[in-house]
Amino acid sequence: MNTSEKLHELGIELPQVAAPVAAYVPAVKVGNQVWTSGQLPFVDGQLPVTGQVGAEVDEETAAKMARLAALNALAAIDAVAGIDQVAHVVKVVGFVSSAPDFGGQPAVINGASNLIGEIFGEDGHHARSAVGVAELPLDSPVEVEIIVELS
């Protein structure tokens, strides 16, 4: 089963590629890899939730936002290489806008990692960083980058 079929089976539709909010492109293909820019959890061009995790945003909601950001990253990969060309997810980097006393960044970024596991199975096993930051663009609670290897 290819990735498009797996997405269909899971009832997941990749969104339109989110428009960049500054001077960059959503993803770049280099050799047999695609590197995405940091993707925010946009839905139809809007952030459904804003604020710091551990203050205005709870951990469960933030994990859902990380899942949305990962979907946007996969859409960017699809646009430059085709989602069915992904052989392996190499790395996920997640940034969490965190209140000073919040330490649950790994659980938040599990929202992205779990989605990748659902879609890619063993080919989705990836290295990862989950980093707490003071603020993200547009007051987003999360930002996610993905690096993939192509077949």
UniProtKB/TrEMBL annotation:
The cross-references to InterPro entries, in alphabetical order and at most eight, read:
Endoribo_LPSP/chorism_mut-like, RutC-like_sf
Pfam families, alphabetically? YjgF_endoribonc (PF14588)
Domain of life of the organism encoding this protein: Bacteria
Fetch the Gene3D superfamilies from UniProt. Answer: RutC-like (3.30.1330.40)
User: Residues in domain Endoribonuclease L-PSP/chorismate mutase-like?
Assistant: 7-150
Indicate what this protein is called per its UniProt record: LysR family transcriptional regulator
Q: Give the source lineage, highest ranks first.
A: Bacteria, Bacillati, Actinomycetota, Actinomycetes, Mycobacteriales
